[in-house]
Write a structure and sequence with these properties.
The protein has helices at residues 13-23, 42-55, 71-80, 113-119, 121-130, 143-160, 171-182, 186-195, 222-227; strands at 3-8, 64-67, 94-96, 164-169, 203-209, 212-220. With 243 residues, it is α/β, with parallel strands linked by helices. The chain has one domain (3-227): Rossmann fold (3-Layer(aba) Sandwich), CATH 3.40.50.
Length: 243
C-alpha cells in the first residue's frame, strides 16, 4: 500500500443532540436509538454531498473502499458516491469492517460531562489518574483498546486493500490510526489530539515513503467550503464521544 485516505462521517443527529445536551448541562443525551443506527442530520446530508464532489472524481483511482458498519458512516459514503441521488457506482464494492466502528463507552454511553460527574464520580477520578489513552469505562474501550483492534484491521487490510484505499469511519478511528501508522507515542498522540479536531466529513491523507507512513494532510474540509456546506467538528468530551 502506498496511499491511504481516512474520512470522518458527516454530522449526525447524535452529534447535534450531544452538543446541545452539553450546552444545556443535561445529564443524558436524548437519543432513543442504538449507536450503530444513528443517522445523519440535515447538515450532515449536505456535507456528504459536498464530500461527493471531492470523492467522485477520485474514486476510480482507489483500489478499495472501506467503511465502518455504523449507519452514519455508511450513509455518508453512500451519499458521497451518489447512490442516494440515483447515480451508479458501477461495480465498486464498499467493504465494511466492524473494527472500524466508533469507540464504545460502556456505562458512560449517552452521558454528558455533567452526567458522568453526577452518576460515576469514581470514573472521573480513574480517568484523571489513568489519562485519556488508557482509561477504559466499565463495559467500554480506551484509546489503547481501539489501537489493538486497528492493528488487527491494518494487518488484514494490507493484504486486501491494494495500493490506494479510502476508509470512512469516526473521529476516534482517524486519531488512533495516526498513532498506529505513524508510530506515535502516547504523549505525541495526546498533544496532537489537543491541538487538532477531526471535523465532520473531513479527509486525512497519508502516504508511505521508503516503507514508513507520513502524514500529508490532516482533517481537510476544503471541499465543504468550496460547496458552501457548513463546517462542523463536534469534538466531544474526554470520555463521551458524540455520535
Amino acid at each position: 500500500m502506498r496511499e491511504l485516505w481516512l474520512a470522518r462521517h458527516a454530522e449526525s443527529v447524535g452529534n447535534v443532540a450531544a452538543t446541545r445536551a452539553e450546552v444545556e448541562r443535561l445529564e443524558v443525551i436524548p437519543l432513543d436509538v442504538r449507536d450503530a443506527d444513528v443517522d445523519l442530520s440535515p447538515t450532515g446530508v449536505e456535507q456528504a454531498r459536498a464530500l461527493g464532489d471531492w470523492l467522485q472524481p477520485r474514486v476510480a483511482g482507489f483500489d478499495s473502499l472501506w467503511s465502518s458498519p455504523y449507519a452514519r458512516a455508511r450513509r455518508t459514503l453512500a451519499i458521497a458516491l451518489g447512490e442516494e441521488l440515483g447515480e451508479e457506482r458501477g461495480e465498486r464494492v464498499v467493504l465494511a469492517d466492524e473494527r472500524l466502528r466508533d469507540r464504545e463507552l460502556g456505562v458512560l454511553d449517552l452521558l454528558t460531562h455533567t452526567g458522568v460527574a453526577a452518576r460515576f464520580p469514581g470514573e472521573v477520578a480513574r480517568r484523571r489518574h489513568l489519562g485519556k489513552f488508557y482509561h477504559r469505562p466499565p463495559g467500554g474501550e480506551s484509546w489503547a483498546d481501539i489501537a489493538l483492534r486497528l492493528r488487527s484491521f491494518f494487518g488484514d487490510f494490507e493484504a486486501a486493500a491494494g495500493e490506494r484505499a479510502f476508509v470512512m469511519a469516526h473521529d476516534a478511528i482517524v486519531m488512533v490510526s495516526l498513532y498506529v501508522l505513524l508510530g506515535l507515542s502516547e504523549t505525541e498522540l495526546l498533544e496532537f489530539a489537543r491541538a487538532k479536531v477531526v471535523g465532520n466529513a473531513s479527509v486525512t491523507h497519508l502516504e508511505r515513503v521508503d516503507g514508513r507512513w507520513r502524514l500529508v494532510e490532516f482533517g481537510d474540509v476544503g471541499h465543504l467550503r468550496v460547496e458552501g456546506a457548513p463546517v462542523t467538528a463536534h469534538p466531544g468530551a474526554d470520555d463521551v464521544t458524540p455520535r
